[in-house]
Amino acid sequence: MSDFPRWKYALVVVVLLLGLLYALPNVFAPQPAVQISANRGARIDASMQDKVESILKKDKLTWDKINITGDSKQEGSQRMLVRFHSDDVQTKAVEALKDGLGNQYVVAPNLASTVPSWLRSLHANSMPLGLDLQGGVHFLMQVDQSGVRQRQEQVYTGDVRQLLREKNIRYLSVSHGGKGVVAVLRSEADRSAATDAIGAEYPDLDISNGPSTGNRFVLDMQIKPDKLRELAQNTIRQNLSTLRNRVNALGVSEPLVQQQGNSRIVVDLAGIQDTAQAKRILGAQASLEYRAGIAQYPDQRVIDAVEKGIVPPDARLYYGKACPRGCLLSKQVIVTGDELTNANSGFDQQQGSPEVQVTLNAAGAKRMRTFTESNVGKPMAVVYIDHIPQTKMVDGKEVHSFKTSERVISYATVNGVFGRQFSTTGLDSPKEASDLALLLKAGSLAAPMTFVEQHVIGPSLGRDNIRKGVSAVILGLSLVLLAALIYYKLFGLVADIALVLNLVLLVAVMSMIGVTLTMPGIAGIVLTLGMAIDSNVLICERVREELRNGSTPHASIRAGYEKAWATILDANVTHLLAAMALMTMGSGPIRGFGVTLFIGILTSMFTSVTVTHAITALIHGRRKLKTLSV
């Protein structure tokens, strides 16, 4: 056994020391805390800390420690963390601080690390806990794919109308409905010219001739299936990005936002217990549209539209705070909320009313500047659009739908040319302004979403899951250790030591790469411990076989490791392939299980072969042996 090289001993020692070092932080249990982050230009400093302390003293809540992290020179990067001794005090503190600090700060429950600073300086941190272990809320959201089609049809309606004007093609109307986009032309020649122009400009539309009567020549346009599928995927991706931005605004640590299937999104918010607030922020579908104003009551055109239903073909009738008795706005949208790059709430210095200061992207700024340059002295309106989720029971089943609310919050005259930055007024309250700014800053959803499933996991249930998970690991590990020790004696003891070290290395690697620990992850750990002993079983049985064939003890050990390695490698490669499939194709709990299994297989190959070989070499290396305890 003297052929076991010294560099392998050094490798084993270094790896095990690093494993112990990076697994150590998981011994320190996290502490209940409240995280406070600034919003809309507010600051976190010493005076802010004094205010937090006074709020907690007023409610007779005791805290352990308050510290501020982040760069004071970079706006929005600082966080205040208030630590508590129990979950009950943490819950009361969240409510008290939310009421006391108002909308300028984001207050969210969190778990503060208790890992010593010297370990954190080495980037050694404990594994973050998942929703089922930490507690929080789980949402399953359904994307309204029909809304995607309708929205795109509305875009094509405006584009086709503009194209026909540019090409001087006469038409009576361009609208969209249940059959897609419908254009009514004045003659057969106009319809033919429109078909050629639209087909060349918008190849994603299927164009066909509709029924013709008198001087009405109909052209039907529908979005091609390939384009609809592309729009659906883009919608999912945009909604994922928007939801992640909104989750960040909630101040949640270690959130999970991922796609499930073709039209659903899973959102897990660990540490959050207020489902009403989370649903309001995540499910809100609020945006703005800036449209040219045509007429306002008591203009005769508005009276005709309100009383007789006679609406000009290029206009729509709206109501709202800015025009309670009605106003006509252009169907052509100047800029939408999707083209906003930033939004902050504040107060109008002249009137003292709530406002949202918006910043447009380059494309939106160009269109706004073009419009204002040619429409100084003319009205422009701001339309606030909100999609409100609704659930009705039909034949004993829940049917999800949306009620769309559109109201004019501002109808004012364009007094000068502007483009990239300006303010939107007409909001009812500072809270409405702050909520609108938050949603616009995070981005609007590409399509409305409904909450298909939701449930809350309390902190006490999370702790109970942790206890059960730890008990399962200890029980499974103990049974495997006992069986190996009884059946393989000294070699079984060596295998047991390697198995414990495998658990340490597995936890260390998961902590280093930041794998979130969940109940499926704990199941993966238990399965890994049960599978890891298989390699040592193969080695021990091979050593026994060599001894029965008359080989010397040293030769039997050497042959056992050499001949068993090929079998061990083959078996673990197939396990790795299965784990990779779970990681890449699975989602949520399945992916967590696959990640844990993949890491566990790699660490078990090292401990079961290299570590046990090193220990066996230390025990038997230079001794004269007559037999082996195997």
Automatic annotation (TrEMBL):
SUPFAM superfamilies: Multidrug efflux transporter AcrB transmembrane domain
Main subcellular location of this protein, as a coarse class: membrane
Keywords for the protein's UniProt record, in alphabetical order: Cell membrane, Membrane, Protein transport, Translocation, Transmembrane, Transmembrane helix, Transport
Keyword Chloroplast in annotation: no
SecDF P1 head subdomain domain boundaries: 324-447
Superkingdom per UniProt: Bacteria
Residue ranges of every copy of the Protein translocase subunit SecDF P1 domain listed in the record: 236-291
Residue stretches spanning the membrane: 469-488, 493-515, 597-619
Subcellular location: Cell membrane
BP term (GO), one: protein transport by the Sec complex
Record's keyword annotation contains Transport: yes
MF annotations from Gene Ontology: protein-transporting ATPase activity
Residue ranges of domain SecD export protein N-terminal TM in the record: 1-108
InterPro entries given in the database record: SecD, SecD-TM, SecD/SecF_arch_bac, SecD/SecF_CS, SecD_1st, SecD_SecF_C, SecD_SecF_C_bact, SecDF_P1_head
Domain Protein export membrane protein SecD/SecF C-terminal: 451-620
Assigned GO CC terms: plasma membrane
Family as reported in the entry's similarity comment: Belongs to the SecD/SecF family. SecD subfamily.
Entry-linked NCBIfam families: 2A0604s01 (TIGR00916), secD (TIGR01129)
Quaternary context: Forms a complex with SecF. Part of the essential Sec protein translocation apparatus which comprises SecA, SecYEG and auxiliary proteins SecDF-YajC and YidC.
Function, as annotated: Part of the Sec protein translocase complex. Interacts with the SecYEG preprotein conducting channel. SecDF uses the proton motive force (PMF) to complete protein translocation after the ATP-dependent function of SecA.
This protein's name: Protein translocase subunit SecD
The organism of origin for this protein: Oleiagrimonas citrea
